[in-house]
């Protein structure tokens, strides 16, 4: 499944929409420290935003920044009518309380959909803002005419940013959902049941073909930087290639879709005014 191509199509549509409606969407992005996956994200995001006509205000703060200073920055953007979306890159350094930061962002400006209010709306199948990666995965599947309704969906990973919201979206789409994690026993036995397998562990190339059944749809969320500088996912792409019916590459799969959804949500927020 070619996420890069679909993301490009979505970005072109957004560009037209922004131009036609005379919008100037503005997104504030805050990165603390230097998590490698976050750095990839920030770079690609800036590029995409610029082409669409979305203005980004970027803050790269040192890992030593105090929690109060970070909160003050968020409050400032909450009040600023010219800013439509606020995104704080996760993970944050251990010295900062991630939950407190997520709570501080106004739910109306929460382009990541991580605020408890927005997660609650999602869980109750009345979403306001959606986490970008799971939303991007749903769009990618829809594009390839893969309907999760009634399917056995297995998710590996239960993080707040991928696994949990993914489970909620899949449940809303009428899938039968299994969420697995590091304490799961007999992981391969569970993943082999999957019609659709979504992997977000952060463990480079952890799952090979022995973890799937013939004809499964495999979505690889992982973005891992190897020592030689190359980027790989959480599944062994080569191994799965002959056995999966559909497979997302890394790079070029879920990553670009995440960015496209972030752009889409920012434009949606700007349109809501
Ligand atoms: N392409 C994109 O747009 C995005 C990519 N990413 C990438 O996706 C990956 C996952 O990110 P994220 O969800 O934030 O990661 P986290 O580290 O927050 O969560 C990883 C999850 O995987 C589980 N896990 C770890 N090891 C194993 C194992 N051996 N067996 C089973 N489960 C395991 C953990 O279990 P437990 O809860 O028990 O610890 C945890 O639930 C990373 O590579 C990240 O860079 C993330 C966001 C967006
Ligand atoms: N608040 C928050 N929201 C996030 O959504 C979030 C986050 N924090 N922290 C970090 C992770 C990681 N993440 C990525 C998104 C896109 C690519 C991406 O564009 N990947 C390209 C890489 C291409 C390249 O540059 O080589 C691809 O896979 O093709 C990577 C990683 C979002 N995350």
UniProtKB/TrEMBL annotation:
GO terms for biological process: L-histidine biosynthetic process; methionine biosynthetic process; purine nucleotide biosynthetic process; tetrahydrofolate interconversion. It holds the Pfam family THF_DHG_CYH. Residues 131-272 form the Tetrahydrofolate dehydrogenase/cyclohydrolase NAD(P)-binding domain. Residues 1-112 form the Tetrahydrofolate dehydrogenase/cyclohydrolase catalytic domain. Its EC number is 1.5.1.5, 3.5.4.9. Keywords: Amino-acid biosynthesis, Histidine biosynthesis, Hydrolase, Methionine biosynthesis, Multifunctional enzyme, NADP, One-carbon metabolism, Oxidoreductase, Purine biosynthesis. NADP(+) binds at residues 157-159, 223. Pathway: One-carbon metabolism; tetrahydrofolate interconversion. SUPFAM superfamilies: Aminoacid dehydrogenase-like, N-terminal domain, NAD(P)-binding Rossmann-fold domains. GO terms for molecular function: methenyltetrahydrofolate cyclohydrolase activity; methylenetetrahydrofolate dehydrogenase (NADP+) activity. Gene3D superfamilies: Leucine Dehydrogenase, chain A, domain 1, NAD(P)-binding Rossmann-like Domain. GO terms for cellular component: cytosol. It catalyses: (6R)-5,10-methenyltetrahydrofolate + H2O = (6R)-10-formyltetrahydrofolate + H(+); (6R)-5,10-methylene-5,6,7,8-tetrahydrofolate + NADP(+) = (6R)-5,10-methenyltetrahydrofolate + NADPH. Homodimer. PANTHER family: C-1-TETRAHYDROFOLATE SYNTHASE, CYTOPLASMIC, C-1-TETRAHYDROFOLATE SYNTHASE, CYTOPLASMIC-RELATED. Catalyzes the oxidation of 5,10-methylenetetrahydrofolate to 5,10-methenyltetrahydrofolate and then the hydrolysis of 5,10-methenyltetrahydrofolate to 10-formyltetrahydrofolate. NCBIfam families: PRK10792.1 (NF008058), PRK14186.1 (NF010783). Belongs to the tetrahydrofolate dehydrogenase/cyclohydrolase family. This is Bifunctional protein FolD. It comes from Ligilactobacillus equi DPC 6820.
């Amino acid at each position: 499944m070619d996420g890069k191509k679909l993301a490009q199509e979505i970005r072109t549509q957004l560009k037209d929409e922004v131009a036609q409606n005379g919008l100037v969407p503005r997104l504030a992005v805050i990165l603390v420290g230097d998590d490698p996956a976050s750095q990839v994200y920030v770079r690609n995001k800036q590029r995409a935003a610029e082409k669409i006509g979305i203005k980004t205000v970027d803050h790269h703060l040192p890992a030593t920044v105090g929690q109060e200073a970070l909160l003050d920055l968020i409050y400032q953007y909450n009040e600023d009518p010219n800013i439509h979306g606020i995104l704080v890159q996760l993970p944050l350094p251990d010295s900062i309380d991630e939950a407190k930061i997520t709570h501080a962002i106004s739910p109306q400006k929460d382009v990541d959909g991580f605020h408890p209010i927005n997660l609650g709306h999602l869980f109750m199948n009345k979403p306001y803002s959606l986490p970008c990666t799971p939303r991007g995965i749903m769009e990618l599947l829809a594009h390839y005419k893969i309907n999760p309704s009634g399917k056995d969906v297995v998710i590996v990973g239960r993080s707040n940013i991928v696994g949990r919201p993914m489970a909620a979206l899949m449940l809303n789409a009428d899938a039968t959902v299994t969420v697995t994690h590091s304490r799961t026993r007999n992981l391969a036995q569970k993943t082999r049941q999957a019609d659709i397998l979504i992997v977000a562990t952060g463990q480079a190339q952890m799952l090979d073909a022995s973890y799937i059944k013939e004809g499964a749809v495999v979505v690889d969320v992982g973005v891992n930087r190897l020592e030689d500088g190359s980027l790989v996912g959480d599944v062994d792409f080569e191994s799965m290639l002959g056995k999966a019916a559909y497979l997302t590459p890394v790079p070029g799969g879920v990553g670009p879709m995440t960015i496209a959804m972030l752009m889409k949500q920012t434009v949606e927020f700007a349109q809501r005014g």
